[in-house]
Amino acid sequence: MVEDRKPVPMQPEPFDGQSARPGAMHFDMPMGKDVHSIRRRIEMMEQVLERSFVIPGINRPVGLDSIIGLVPVVGDIIAMGMGAYIVWEARNLNLPKWKLMRMAANVGFDTAVGAVPLVGDVFDFMFRSNTRNLRIVRKHLDKHHPETKVIDQ
Asked: Distance between CA atoms of 93 and 88, rounded to whole angstroms?
Protein backbone atom coordinates (compact mmCIF):
# COMPACT_ATOMS: atom_id res chain seq x y z
CA MET A 1 0.00 0.00 0.00
CA VAL A 2 1.35 3.40 -0.97
CA GLU A 3 1.26 6.03 1.73
CA ASP A 4 0.47 9.63 0.93
CA ARG A 5 3.48 11.52 2.18
CA LYS A 6 3.97 15.22 1.95
CA PRO A 7 7.45 16.24 0.91
CA VAL A 8 9.52 17.70 3.70
CA PRO A 9 10.67 21.20 2.73
CA MET A 10 14.41 21.55 2.68
CA GLN A 11 15.74 24.11 5.10
CA PRO A 12 18.53 26.37 3.89
CA GLU A 13 21.78 25.93 5.71
CA PRO A 14 22.51 28.79 8.09
CA PHE A 15 25.16 31.25 7.02
CA ASP A 16 28.23 30.63 9.13
CA GLY A 17 30.15 33.69 8.00
CA GLN A 18 33.08 31.58 6.83
CA SER A 19 31.82 30.12 3.58
CA ALA A 20 32.18 33.41 1.69
CA ARG A 21 35.25 35.52 1.31
CA PRO A 22 35.77 38.18 3.98
CA GLY A 23 34.00 41.45 3.21
CA ALA A 24 31.56 39.80 0.80
CA MET A 25 27.96 40.90 0.97
CA HIS A 26 25.53 38.22 2.13
CA PHE A 27 21.85 38.53 1.35
CA ASP A 28 19.29 36.38 3.10
CA MET A 29 16.80 36.17 0.23
CA PRO A 30 13.22 35.89 1.52
CA MET A 31 11.45 33.33 -0.65
CA GLY A 32 7.83 33.65 0.49
CA LYS A 33 4.87 35.01 -1.42
CA ASP A 34 3.75 37.19 1.46
CA VAL A 35 3.85 40.98 1.25
CA HIS A 36 6.83 41.33 3.59
CA SER A 37 8.98 38.88 1.59
CA ILE A 38 8.16 40.60 -1.70
CA ARG A 39 9.01 43.98 -0.18
CA ARG A 40 12.40 42.67 1.01
CA ARG A 41 13.17 41.21 -2.44
CA ILE A 42 12.38 44.54 -4.11
CA GLU A 43 14.52 46.42 -1.58
CA MET A 44 17.41 44.00 -2.05
CA MET A 45 17.25 44.22 -5.85
CA GLU A 46 17.22 48.02 -5.69
CA GLN A 47 20.28 47.96 -3.43
CA VAL A 48 22.16 45.66 -5.82
CA LEU A 49 21.21 47.75 -8.85
CA GLU A 50 21.71 51.23 -7.38
CA ARG A 51 23.75 51.16 -4.16
CA SER A 52 26.08 48.15 -4.09
CA PHE A 53 29.24 50.09 -3.29
CA VAL A 54 30.60 53.62 -2.96
CA ILE A 55 33.09 55.15 -5.39
CA PRO A 56 36.07 56.38 -3.38
CA GLY A 57 36.79 60.08 -3.63
CA ILE A 58 33.30 61.22 -4.57
CA ASN A 59 31.44 59.09 -2.00
CA ARG A 60 28.60 58.38 -4.41
CA PRO A 61 26.92 54.97 -4.22
CA VAL A 62 26.68 53.06 -7.48
CA GLY A 63 25.36 49.66 -8.37
CA LEU A 64 25.18 47.02 -11.00
CA ASP A 65 22.90 49.12 -13.23
CA SER A 66 25.63 51.71 -13.81
CA ILE A 67 28.39 49.13 -14.17
CA ILE A 68 26.74 46.78 -16.66
CA GLY A 69 25.38 49.80 -18.51
CA LEU A 70 28.95 50.40 -19.68
CA VAL A 71 28.69 47.32 -21.91
CA PRO A 72 26.98 48.44 -25.12
CA VAL A 73 23.52 46.99 -25.86
CA VAL A 74 23.86 43.75 -23.86
CA GLY A 75 24.46 45.57 -20.58
CA ASP A 76 21.45 47.80 -21.11
CA ILE A 77 19.24 44.82 -21.91
CA ILE A 78 20.37 43.00 -18.75
CA ALA A 79 19.82 46.12 -16.63
CA MET A 80 16.35 46.51 -18.17
CA GLY A 81 15.50 42.90 -17.30
CA MET A 82 16.60 43.36 -13.71
CA GLY A 83 14.59 46.59 -13.45
CA ALA A 84 11.59 44.81 -14.98
CA TYR A 85 11.88 42.20 -12.21
CA ILE A 86 11.06 44.94 -9.67
CA VAL A 87 7.98 45.89 -11.71
CA TRP A 88 6.95 42.21 -11.88
CA GLU A 89 7.29 41.85 -8.11
CA ALA A 90 5.23 45.04 -7.69
CA ARG A 91 2.53 43.41 -9.85
CA ASN A 92 2.53 40.52 -7.36
CA LEU A 93 1.71 43.10 -4.67
CA ASN A 94 -1.41 44.12 -6.63
CA LEU A 95 -0.30 47.70 -7.21
CA PRO A 96 -2.74 49.67 -9.36
CA LYS A 97 -2.10 49.51 -13.09
CA TRP A 98 -1.25 53.21 -13.30
CA LYS A 99 1.54 52.74 -10.75
CA LEU A 100 2.85 49.73 -12.66
CA MET A 101 2.78 51.75 -15.88
CA ARG A 102 4.70 54.56 -14.21
CA MET A 103 7.29 52.07 -12.94
CA ALA A 104 7.58 50.49 -16.40
CA ALA A 105 8.01 53.97 -17.89
CA ASN A 106 10.87 54.65 -15.45
CA VAL A 107 12.63 51.46 -16.55
CA GLY A 108 11.92 52.14 -20.23
CA PHE A 109 13.19 55.72 -20.04
CA ASP A 110 16.33 54.59 -18.21
CA THR A 111 16.94 51.92 -20.86
CA ALA A 112 16.29 54.21 -23.84
CA VAL A 113 18.53 57.04 -22.68
CA GLY A 114 21.08 54.64 -21.19
CA ALA A 115 21.54 53.02 -24.61
CA VAL A 116 23.06 56.23 -26.02
CA PRO A 117 26.86 55.86 -25.99
CA LEU A 118 28.74 57.94 -23.37
CA VAL A 119 25.80 60.25 -22.60
CA GLY A 120 23.77 57.22 -21.52
CA ASP A 121 26.52 56.06 -19.18
CA VAL A 122 26.53 59.40 -17.37
CA PHE A 123 22.72 59.32 -17.35
CA ASP A 124 22.74 55.83 -15.77
CA PHE A 125 24.99 57.18 -13.06
CA MET A 126 22.58 60.04 -12.27
CA PHE A 127 19.03 58.72 -13.00
CA ARG A 128 18.06 55.94 -10.62
CA SER A 129 14.90 54.38 -12.01
CA ASN A 130 14.98 51.47 -9.58
CA THR A 131 15.17 53.81 -6.58
CA ARG A 132 12.20 55.73 -7.97
CA ASN A 133 10.30 52.46 -8.39
CA LEU A 134 11.17 51.39 -4.85
CA ARG A 135 9.78 54.71 -3.60
CA ILE A 136 6.48 54.00 -5.43
CA VAL A 137 6.27 50.51 -3.89
CA ARG A 138 7.14 51.71 -0.39
CA LYS A 139 4.55 54.50 -0.52
CA HIS A 140 1.87 52.01 -1.59
CA LEU A 141 2.84 49.42 1.04
CA ASP A 142 3.14 51.97 3.84
CA LYS A 143 -0.44 52.99 3.12
CA HIS A 144 -2.02 49.59 2.44
CA HIS A 145 0.23 47.21 4.44
CA PRO A 146 1.74 49.23 7.30
CA GLU A 147 2.79 46.04 9.09
CA THR A 148 5.57 45.55 6.51
CA LYS A 149 7.35 48.78 7.46
CA VAL A 150 10.95 48.26 8.45
CA ILE A 151 12.56 50.72 10.81
CA ASP A 152 16.18 51.33 9.81
CA GLN A 153 18.63 51.92 12.61
From this structure: 9
Secondary structure of the chain in the HEC alphabet? CCCCCCCCCCCCCCCCCCCCCCCCCCCCCCCCCCHHHHHHHHHHHHHHHHCCEEECCCCEEECHHHHHCCCCCHHHHHHHHHHHHHHHHHHHCCCCHHHHHHHHHHHHHHHHHHCCCCHHHHHHHHCCHHHHHHHHHHHHHHHHCHHHCCCCC
Backbone angles phi, psi at 143, to 5 degrees: -85, -45
Query: 0.90 exceeded by the pTM?
Result: no
53-55 vs 60-62, strand pairing mode = antiparallel
Greatest alpha-carbon span in the chain: 71
pLDDT band of residue 121 (cuts 50, 70, 90) is: confident
Number of CB atoms found within 10 A of residue 24's CB: 8
